[in-house]
Automatic annotation (TrEMBL):
<dbReference type="InterPro" id="IPR027493">
    <property type="entry name" value="Ribosomal_bL31_B"/>
</dbReference>
<comment type="subunit">
    <text>Part of the 50S ribosomal subunit.</text>
</comment>
<protein>
    <recommendedName>
        <fullName>Large ribosomal subunit protein bL31B</fullName>
    </recommendedName>
</protein>
<dbReference type="InterPro" id="IPR042105">
    <property type="entry name" value="Ribosomal_bL31_sf"/>
</dbReference>
<dbReference type="InterPro" id="IPR034704">
    <property type="entry name" value="Ribosomal_bL28/bL31-like_sf"/>
</dbReference>
<comment type="similarity">
    <text>Belongs to the bacterial ribosomal protein bL31 family. Type B subfamily.</text>
</comment>
<dbReference type="Pfam" id="PF01197">
    <property type="entry name" value="Ribosomal_L31"/>
</dbReference>
<keyword id="KW-0689">Ribosomal protein</keyword>
<dbReference type="InterPro" id="IPR002150">
    <property type="entry name" value="Ribosomal_bL31"/>
</dbReference>
<keyword id="KW-0687">Ribonucleoprotein</keyword>
<dbReference type="GO" id="GO:0005840">
    <property type="term" value="C:ribosome"/>
</dbReference>
Amino acid sequence: MRKDIHPEYREVVFQDTSSDYSFITRSTMNSEETIKWEDGKTYPVVKVEVSSASHPFYTGKKLFVDTAGRVEKFNKRYVNKK
């Protein structure tokens, strides 16, 4: 393998902003923010809007609130007007 061409693969904390759920995994994502984890170490934190703790498929909730209003915007634009 060639040196210095691969991104750094390290432990990163992903934090779900909608459900206040956090988990640690390995990733190449970069972040300026850091968080002190339960083990006392400091890790970079990446904030996400949807994770397994808030996604309707995993939670069993039928209703999914679209923060950007994309569904309403689509329906408004392409609804059949009679």
